[in-house]
Amino acid sequence: MPFSFADPAAASRPLHLVEAAEAAAFVAGRSDAERAWLDALGFTGALGQIYVLPGLDGAPAGAVFGWGSAATRRRGRFQIARAVADLPSGDWHLEGDLSPREAEEAALGWLLATYRFTRYKSVKTPVARLKAPAGVDAARLLAIAEGEALTRDLINTPAADMGPAELEDAFTTLGRRFGAEIRVIRGDDLLAHGFPMIHAVGRASDRAPRLLDLTWGEAGPRLTLVGKGVCFDTGGLDIKPAASMGLMKKDMGGAATVIGLAHMIMALGLKLRLRVLVPAVENAVGGNAFRPQDILKSRKGLTVEINNTDAEGRLVLADALALADEEKPDLLVSMATLTGAARVAVGPDLAPYFCDDDIIAAALAEAGATIADPLWRLPFWEPYETMIEPGIADLDNAPAGGMAGSITAALFLRRFVTDTPRYAHFDIYGWQPKAEPGRPKGGVGQGARALLEALPGVLGL
C-alpha cells in the first residue's frame, strides 16, 4: 500500500505532546477557551489521551496527546501511533521535545498505523498525515514502511491465494522492480538440482514445491537471507488439530519477512550483494507424503530421521541453507516461524535469535532496542547437540521430550552452515495477536528492521 508524509511546505495543525508532569502547566498556558475545554475533558497528560482543540471557526485548531512519562512509554512502542486513527483528516506536525530517535520512531509508527489489509474488504484508512519531523530521513522511513507492508500483506493473504506459485509471483515482482536476477527450481527438478528435502516436504501437494532464488547488487559484502516459505502447514501425516491449524497461513512468515527486508535493502540502494532464498512449499496430506520414520538425505549429505512430519520447516530451510553456505557469504541469516517453543519462551512480541558471533549478536540487540524492533538472544547450546542425533541417521528432525524446542531446532539448522562463520537465525512469530500502536491485528514483520539497522556496522557498509 502507498505511504506518504505531508508536504513539508504545506500548512499543518500541531499535535502537542504533553507529559503528565507538565499537563497542568500546559493547560494553564492555553487560551481561556482551550483551558476550559481541556479542564472539562479531564486532560491529565496520561499516555494515550487525545483531544482535538476547536478553533474559533469550529474547525480543529490542533490537538493534544498525553505523553505520559518515560516509564509508561517504555511499556510499549510506537506510542504516538495511538493518535493516528482519532485525528481529523488533514496535515499535522508534532510539537514536543523529542530526541532524534524518538522522532524517527514517531514518524515510522505513524506510517505503520495507517496500514490496512484491504484485499478482500474495503476498510476505512486513517486520513491524518504527518509532516516528517526535522532531521528524520523521510525517504528511508517510507522504504521501511513499504517493506513492512509487503510482509504484512503476504502473511495476511489466505493460503488459497498465497500458495507456492503466488509467493513466487510476489517474489518475482519484487525482483523485477529492482532489476534483480531471479531463478526458480520447481517440482521434480528439485531432485535433479540437489534439493531432496524441499521436494519431500512439498511433493504431496498439487501445488508444486519450489526454490526461489534472487540475486541483486554487483559490489560489496555478500548478504544471504533464507526465509521459510511453508505456505500452509497441515502438519503432514502427523496432522495438526484444528486449533493448531487455524493460523497456518502465516507459516510462510519467514519468507514474507525476508522479502520485505529485501525490499528495504534494494529500495535504499545499500552497497552490498544480496541473495534471497525461499523454499516455497505446502505441507499437505496425501498418499505420496513423506512419513514418520522416513530417512531423508539432504543437499548437505546429512541424513535426517523424520520423527514428526510437522517439523517440516527446518527440513526445507536445511537444503536452502546448504546452498547458501556453498557461496560462503559474509553474513547468512535465516528467518522462520519455526517453533511453538519460542512463543512459550518469549511470547509474540519478541523475536528470539541465535548467533555464535558475539559482536553481531550485540549489534542486533542494540539495533532492536534502538529502532523499536525488540529481539532476544537465545543460545546455540552445544550440550543439547546429542538431542538431535538419533540412532540410525545423522539428525533427528523432532527430538523426543519436548525440552528446548527452539534451541534444538536452531542447532539442527546450524548443522547445514559449515563454511560460513557469521550466521544468525531468527525464530519469529510473524503475527500480531491483538492490535497495538502501529501494528494492527494480523501479519507483522519481526527482526527485519533491526537487521537493517545493524547491517552497516556488521558488514562495514
UniProtKB/TrEMBL annotation:
<dbReference type="InterPro" id="IPR043472">
    <property type="entry name" value="Macro_dom-like"/>
</dbReference>
<feature type="domain" description="Cytosol aminopeptidase">
    <location>
        <begin position="308"/>
        <end position="315"/>
    </location>
</feature>
<keyword id="KW-0378">Hydrolase</keyword>
<keyword id="KW-0464">Manganese</keyword>
<dbReference type="InterPro" id="IPR000819">
    <property type="entry name" value="Peptidase_M17_C"/>
</dbReference>
<keyword id="KW-0645">Protease</keyword>
<protein>
    <submittedName>
        <fullName>Leucyl aminopeptidase family protein</fullName>
    </submittedName>
</protein>
<comment type="similarity">
    <text>Belongs to the peptidase M17 family.</text>
</comment>
<dbReference type="InterPro" id="IPR011356">
    <property type="entry name" value="Leucine_aapep/pepB"/>
</dbReference>
<dbReference type="GO" id="GO:0004177">
    <property type="term" value="F:aminopeptidase activity"/>
</dbReference>
<dbReference type="Pfam" id="PF21337">
    <property type="entry name" value="Peptidase_M17_N_1"/>
</dbReference>
<dbReference type="Pfam" id="PF00883">
    <property type="entry name" value="Peptidase_M17"/>
</dbReference>
<dbReference type="InterPro" id="IPR048816">
    <property type="entry name" value="Peptidase_M17_N_1"/>
</dbReference>
<keyword id="KW-0031">Aminopeptidase</keyword>
